[in-house]
Amino acid sequence: MLDYNAPLMTDMYEYTMLDATLQDGTANRDCVFEVFTRHLPQNRRYGVLAGTGRLLEALKDFHFAEDDLRFLADRHIVNKSTIDYLERFEFTGTIRGYREGEVYFPDSPVLQVEGKFGECTLLETLILSILNYDSAVAAAASRMTSAAKGRPCMDMGGRRTNEWAAVAAARASIVGGFRGTANLLAAKLYDLLAIGTAAHAFTLVHDSERAAFESQIAALGRNTTLLVDTYDIEQAVKLAVEVAGPELGGVRIDSGDLASLAQRVRNQLDALGATNTKITVTNDLDEYAIASLQTAPVDSYGVGTQLVTGSGSPTCSMVYKLVERTGDDGRMQPVAKKSKDKATVPGRKLAYRSYEYSLAECEHVVSGPVAELDCFEPGDGWRNLLVDFVDHGQIDDAYTGHDAIMDAQKHHAEALAELPITAQSLMKGDPVIPTQMVTLPW
Amino acid sequence: MLDYNAPLMTDMYEYTMLDATLQDGTANRDCVFEVFTRHLPQNRRYGVLAGTGRLLEALKDFHFAEDDLRFLADRHIVNKSTIDYLERFEFTGTIRGYREGEVYFPDSPVLQVEGKFGECTLLETLILSILNYDSAVAAAASRMTSAAKGRPCMDMGGRRTNEWAAVAAARASIVGGFRGTANLLAAKLYDLLAIGTAAHAFTLVHDSERAAFESQIAALGRNTTLLVDTYDIEQAVKLAVEVAGPELGGVRIDSGDLASLAQRVRNQLDALGATNTKITVTNDLDEYAIASLQTAPVDSYGVGTQLVTGSGSPTCSMVYKLVERTGDDGRMQPVAKKSKDKATVPGRKLAYRSYEYSLAECEHVVSGPVAELDCFEPGDGWRNLLVDFVDHGQIDDAYTGHDAIMDAQKHHAEALAELPITAQSLMKGDPVIPTQMVTLPW
What we know:
The structure is a homodimer.
Chain A: H1 12-24, E1 30-37, E2 47-48, H2 52-60, H3 66-74, H4 80-87, E3 94-97, E4 103-104, E5 111-116, H5 117-148, E6 153-155, H6 163-175, E7 180-181, H7 184-190, H8 200-205, H9 209-220, E8 225-227, H10 233-244, E9 250-253, H11 258-271, E10 278-281, H12 287-292, E11 300-303, H13 305-308, E12 318-326, E13 332-334, E14 349-356, E15 359-367, H14 370-374, E16 383-384, E17 387-391, E18 394-395, H15 401-417, E19 435-439
Helix pairs in contact in A: 1-5, 2-5, 3-4, 5-6, 6-7, 6-15, 9-10, 10-11
């Protein structure tokens, strides 16, 4: 495993706030923080939560190395007694939230973190970094997967985002429905299908396109995918079948008018007897381009830039807000800020989705005192959206690792299928179901 | 230092291409690869190269751990003799390029990698990941810094991008002119100024705003920055000066109409005698918002989302293309692909910037055979844009670490100052100087 350094992937103010609250005692107040977004990006119809598994894995790494503590001390970011606190730091709180792969809407409480103020504060930046980026990629992947209508989409975006973000993006793309990734570190860490073809440089380093194709077939077998647009596509396809025979696995087209090229290449391949040879297209694809290729004889899509940058929305505006905490009397009290356009709804939330004719029709977000929430009766057939990830510091391993990613992919497909079909329209518009906020009397 | 795993931050096809070319012998051909972009994003006027220092640091880590090799073997990505090659892998090539912080334009050869095909191929993904993301952030930071007209801009964007990307973004923001970052890991790794204020949760966890302010002052001293928009800004400012005295370091406003609020708060602070108390504003700032605040009495800007997502352009479309390689006769030959809209210019390049009245007027990109390039005479006063970073595997440490970042910041400011002032306009338009491609006879 990698040396992750989760504790310092954090804004300085989390530490200075910890420092001040340890001194005045409020660091030990019981708190509930919630993660939510006020709006979906770009008039999208739904969001896709991703990153939960990564977050839980990062939480396991949330321990301070000696040189981290030295850094915090040397820079006078916190004082000596806070260093002592950090040395012994262990998150002992409880985390629940929407399942990875779940769809969400404005004000959905996608994550709820319950614990002492001090420990919950330290997690803010890391939680938001992970969920904001991974969910942005998963949402793009979900839209592309829908647009591809069953044809496999593959992540080839690593080179267009930060080298670590690329690893997270590969994982999040699988949550959103992608089948494989070109990124080897992601394939290794999360046991994902690794895929790839060849670059133009491979053709160019050889004395001829024929030499390049022969070399690739010799090394990777006939089932490989040959890149056919370095010089002239028609000649390259002819050559490819000549070299590999009709058992050639696939060809990739990376430039030009992909729809009409795919059609020409399909006909050419069929005429050459290579009827099972697949056509992969790449070249700045996004969900709109993929949708426009629906009638073209394309077998799979390789997606880069637009996947790893969230197709126009590289982040999700998720925030982490204190909604409840104990007062001097030890009793939980709802709290909320009143900032203009950024006011929050006090109190911890329950979250349910209700259905009509097996289709989701409303997101119900219910807040109120624990005693009231405990006896809240959801409507008939409402689905409880909150699951437990961490119980008093104990991380549930069912939500980490490879299997959790595949579970999330399956769960996402099911959650999406439950939404009104408008969700899969690429048209801009309101969230496909409304969020109803219900406040029980305090 | 962190366990980086540079070799696997790579698309699978780099390895399968290596495998095939090791078998047919072309892996040992001498090659020149170049990094460039065909266009600047969103009709920007200039680009800012960043990430070079990180790339050189990653190159030092480009060695294979045993379990990486096992992964490559177990997945049958490469065969046994390629594993042997990787076990001994060491980059022995030469890398030159634009200095970190340099401005660039379409077709500027921002990086040139010279070596054997095999070793150059393995670096492609990592080089592009680093340069594409870091340059996107640096360009956004540069535009924001220009718009801020000398007022300091601070990176507070970590929570809105992948947790590792956040570290790279903090560093790139400094290259683009930012003064500090909230990100502690970036501050630690690169010895940067760490900055921060407090969150709304800090106010809310206390029984009153007064208790929160008193706690922060007690822990951090009067020179701290208090967040004043949790409830009512006017009351909070009054309270802040009451608690801290007129020596209060600063206040932060994070919501509402920042210009008019800053004006009111400035007047209120002055009336209370807190004439040296600074005003920091945050809240979805970008270069346009910062420009619109020029006449408001703001002292510094905290920038989040729009910084770390490249202000609408989260990546730079840089590509890595083979331009020259040896043939069977051992002589270097120019190569180029002919793909529609993606054709490349063959041959290694020289790059110069020419000036008129001390202002840049043209980017000259000169290609041709080495013998011709060697005796190419640049025009009077042309600046050679290519510097040497790696000489036959030897990395020049002058371009890594903290000092290199500060050098890059300084160099960027100088390079930007040399451009026609239109560069600093936020209006969309053509690159501020043209790129002239010159081909010497082969």
